[in-house]
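Lab channel / #folding
Pinned by the channel admin:
"Please post every new chain as: sequence first, then the structure tokens as a reply. Keep commentary short and put observations after the output so the thread stays searchable."

First post following the new format, from NK:
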Amino acid sequence: QVQLVESGGGLVQPGGSLRLSCAASGSIFSLYVMAWYRQAPGKQRELVATITSDSITNYASSVKGRFTISRDNAKNTVYLQMNSLKPEDTAVYYCNVRGTNAWGQGTQVTVSS
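Reply from TO:
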């Protein structure tokens, strides 16, 4: 089964940028629809963005125009470029094989002054 490892989180000021990475191994990455989710303390996990095997993307309304999901199938990696970050973007961000229970361990993103 596929294994996922997120990285790239950290502390950033409002208006700043981060790029998250999700490295996959253990299966055929290029066939998967991939997703980024996030979960803030005390809140439900929410879907942030998805990307198909041929790089068709969808975004939550809250991040559209600010975040970009992309993938490099040769590197078995999916990315989330996050620009114009807001405090409400603070959450643990998780990589997911869409529609499955394949998850990474999460990476913390904190947007604060």
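NK: The chain has a mean pLDDT of 95.
TO: also worth noting, Residues 11 and 102 are 26 Å apart (CA to CA).
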